[in-house]
Amino acid sequence: QVQLVESGGGLVQAGDSLRLSCAASGRTFIPNLMGWFRRAPGKGRGFVASASRSAVITSPADSVKGRFTNSRDNAKGTGSLQMNSLRPEEKAVYYCAATGANMDNYNLWGQGTQVTVSS
Questions:
Q1: Between the CA of residue 104 and those of 14, 52, 79, what are the distances in Å?
Q2: Residues 11-25 as b or e (16 or more Cβ within 10 Å = b)
Q3: How confident is the model at residue 1 (pLDDT cuts 50, 70, 90)?
Q4: In percent, how much of the chain has pLDDT > 90?
Q5: Which residue from 16, 13, 26, 17 is spatially nearest to 110, judged by alpha carbons?
Q6: Torsion of CA 27, 33, 34, 37, to 10 degrees
Q7: Residue 37: is its pLDDT beyond 90?
Q8: What are phi and psi of 64, to 5 degrees?
Q9: Cα–Cα dist 112/96, whole Å
């Protein structure tokens, strides 16, 4: 069974950077899409970015374009989210997620990693 494990969260100041990582454990797994979501306090889970199997297409949400960069390494079964110029309102639990090999719906989720941005 494949599991996703995030790491790299923490406490930073506004304007700082963080790099989140996601590692897939278990059998060899190459999802169609590997994505990042976040849940801010008191809010629902929101999309941040995704990368296709080829890792050529990355789709960041409008709110993070130009500041966040996501990537994936199929050989290593890993994904990453580089977050620059973080804002206090981006304090959230960040989740790594993946679809099946030929699917578009996310059905595999990590446990989440906390990101806190102080003003």
A1: 34, 10, 17
A2: ebeeeeebebebbbe
A3: confident
A4: 75
A5: 26
A6: -130
A7: yes
A8: -115, 0
A9: 7
